[in-house]
Amino acid sequence: MVLCAFSIFGIVVLIALELIKSSKLAWAQFGWQFFFRADIDPATHRPWYWDPVNGHFSALPFVYGTLVTSLVALILAVPLAIGVAIFLTEMCPRALRSGLAFLTELLAAIPSVIYGLWAVFILVPILRQHVNPWLFRSLGWTGLFTDDNPTGLGYFASAVILAIMILPIISSLTREVMVAVPHSQREAVLALGATRWEMIRMGVLRNARIGIVGAVILGLGRALGETMAVTMVVGNTPEIHKSLLANGTSMAAVIANEYAEAVSDLHRSALTEIGLALFIVTIIVNALARILVWAVTRGAPARVQ
Question: Nearest-CA neighbor of 124 among 156, 158, 153?
């Protein structure tokens, strides 16, 4: 049993060693500048990031796209996920609680490629015809919605589908940490004359805030590593745009798109280096999130209310 447990650590170490070994060529060629460099194309005088044919590689547009889509997804998903958790934990009738909780968590079991197909055929047309034009007209002055992209693909479409995908993760973990808050906290706040919302805000959310932050960070880890759904709707353009309606790409998307057709050893090594960075960041984010959730729940199982 001990060997079975430690085999998990062995698998993680082997993955890390293989990624380090396969990315040595790119590390020797570019170093840390691989993630920050942005040269200027002498022909077009525009930023030159990724050109495998000419041997020019920079991960900056992929890092930028990953961060933008993930952060926008959190902005969209966190309020809704916390609202769902509050309703299911504190307000939902007992007869509906288990069914709604099951349906919410069922979203996490849907394969990402199904989300991608739904986004391509349903979400993207809605964004293209209704949402994006409204954002362009109403919020174009901010500079974040200035590119009237006729395809509907781009950072914003990826962020919306990511928000839907991480919602059940954040919601379920938020419910877990809220249920772990002792009932005496609720009763004490109510006994002091607080309203129901004041009880939730001061007696529950305040005590569960560390665990909720951990749930949000865990959702961020899922968003950072998501591949297929993002690849299908992000536009896959290795460029950096301020507008959220413009096409872009992400770290996971470029690996999925180009690794099998890498044109050179340096190209393959550069893609592996991107994978190594994504691997390290994902492990750190998930570990931090688990620690924060454990700080509230202390490993106690969720109680049935």
Answer: 153
Cβ neighbourhood burial of 155 (10 Å; 0-12, 13-18, 19+): buried
pLDDT exceeding 70 applies to what percent of the chain? 96
Q: Give the phi and the psi of residue 238 in degrees, each rounded to 5.
A: -75, 65
Q: How confident is the model at residue 305 (pLDDT cuts 50, 70, 90)?
A: very low
CA distance 305 to 302: 9
pTM for the structure as a whole: 0.88
Helix (H, G, I), strand (E, B) or coil at 53: helix
The predicted structure's pLDDT at residue 250: 92
Tens of pLDDT, residues 58-97: 899 999 999 999 999 999 999 999 999 999 988 888 888 8
Alpha-helical (H) ranges within the chain are 2-22, 24-30, 60-86, 94-106, 112-118, 124-126, 132-139, 155-179, 183-191, 196-198, 206-225, 228-233, 251-258, 265-297
CA distance 161 to 242: 20
∠ CA(230), CA(265), CA(113), 5° rounding?
20
Instruction: Using the structure block, give the residue that is written with the tokens 């997804």.
Output: 73
* DSSP per-residue codes, 69-135: HHHHHHHHHHHHHHHHHHIIIIIS-HHHHHHHHHHHHHGGGS-HHHHHHHIIIIIHHHIIIIIHHHH
**What is the three-class DSSP state of 217?**
helix
Tell me which amino acid residue 66 is: T
Question: Of all residues in the chain, what percent carry a pLDDT higher than 90?
Answer: 40
**Three-class SS string for 279-300?**
HHHHHHHHHHHHHHHHHHHCCC
